[in-house]
Amino acid sequence: MPVAAQSSDVHGAARVTAGYAMLYLDEPWAFAAGGSMRLYVYKRLGVEPEFMTARGPRFKQWTFVPNVALDLADPGAKVTPYVIGGLGYFHELDKMINYTRGELAWNGGIGVRVRAGGRLFVAPEFRVGQITRAAVSLGYVF
């Protein structure tokens, strides 16, 4: 029976993400967190709806973005680099003046999923977009 890290029988992945986000160029980096679920539609190509939130001293932001992800190696490999990006919805609250707004959200970036034993993985990544971020995800491949 093949070990999970050697199996290419991967249908999806669920993960939680935490890191730091740059909300605006003149604002300090802020804590960001979120979660997503990737479902493969064809070999290395998947769709990954994601919710992400960031809270700085002045701004609270969140996005919901249905991403498209392309693995650059077999999804069952021990180390799998990927590119990811998508379009969705962005919401922001400016706490200083109690003003909210919503608009089109986008993001794009790169990451690498590293198996951490069995079906668990760690995935550092960097993305630019409405919530530009450097983050690490912990997840489970199914």
Could you report the average pLDDT, rounded to the nearest whole number? Answer: 93
Level-1 CATH class name:
Mainly Beta
Assembly state here? Answer: single chain
Radius of gyration, whole Å: 16 Å
Largest sheet: 8 strands, antiparallel, barrel
Q: What percentage of amino acids are in beta strands? A: over 45%
The total of helices stands at 0
Order of helices and strands: EEEEEEEE
Shape: elongated
The tally of domains stands at: 1
CATH topology: Porin
What distance separates the N and C termini? 16 Å
Share of helix among residues?
Answer: under 10%
Q: Quickly give the CATH architecture.
A: Beta Barrel
Low-pLDDT residue intervals, each spanning 5 or more residues: 1-7
Description:
The chain is an all-beta fold. The protein has one domain: Porin. It has strands at residues 12-22, 30-42, 45-55, 59-71, 79-94, 99-115, 120-129, 132-141. The relative contact order is 0.23.
Write a brief structural summary.
The protein has 142 residues and is an all-beta fold. The chain has strands at residues 12-22, 30-42, 45-55, 59-71, 79-94, 99-115, 120-129, 132-141.
Task: Please write out the topology.
Blueprint (H helix, E strand, L loop, with lengths): L11 E11 L7 E13 L2 E11 L3 E13 L7 E16 L4 E17 L4 E10 L2 E10 L1
Antiparallel strand pairs: 1-2, 1-8, 2-3, 3-4, 4-5, 5-6, 6-7, 7-8
